[in-house]
Design a protein that fits this description.
Elements (H helix, E strand, L loop, with lengths): L13 H22 L7 H14 L2 H18 L5 H20 L3 H26 L10 H16 L1
Helix pairs in contact: 1-3, 2-3, 2-4, 2-5, 2-6, 4-5, 5-6
Length: 157
């Protein structure tokens, strides 16, 4: 029996299939989170993953997280691409300065979660005030979502 040591199985589409699975699973979760208010929208978690993927220069995964952010925008009624623009600006201008000045990793994660929710609300508020549109709403659920998503980022991030 002859062995071929240079032959391997082809896993060409393994990453694409896993990315597709995560997008479909997030679509189902996003639909459930709009029905059940105790489920957070995972906005800060996706923003953190977007930030880390942008730092690693992984284009395929960056596209997946961008699609998930666009799904949140469509479900919440925000401007198209505004979360991607916000997290790109946050990743490019704010986070490098924070990482240079602060050594506390948990503190940086807390600031990122606060910036994701409160900063994005301010970002949308500024866009709406320039365009003379009604201001976006902000309710008490945001505090609950920030606590859950910080715990998830602290555990998995």
């Amino acid at each position: 029996m002859q062995t071929f040591s240079d032959m391997q199985r082809s896993f060409t589409y393994q990453n694409a299939l896993s990315h597709l699975f995560w997008v479909i699973a997030f679509g189902i979760y996003s639909a459930l989170s709009s029905i059940y208010l105790f489920l957070p929208p995972m906005f800060a978690l996706l923003g953190f993953l977007f930030y880390r993927t942008l730092a690693r220069h992984d284009l395929g995964t960056l596209i997946v997280f961008s699609i998930m952010l666009l799904m949140i925008e469509a479900e919440k009624g925000y401007w198209f691409g505004s979360s991607i623009l916000f997290f790109a600006l946050l990743s490019h201008y704010v986070m490098p300065k924070l990482e240079k000045t602060m050594r506390c990793v948990s503190c940086i994660k807390v600031i990122f979660v606060l910036a994701a929710y409160i900063g994005y609300w301010v970002f949308i508020w500024m866009i709406n005030s320039v365009l003379l549109l009604p201001m976006p709403g902000l309710d008490w659920h945001i505090l609950f979502y920030m606590a859950i998503e910080f715990a998830l980022i602290a555990i998995f991030g």
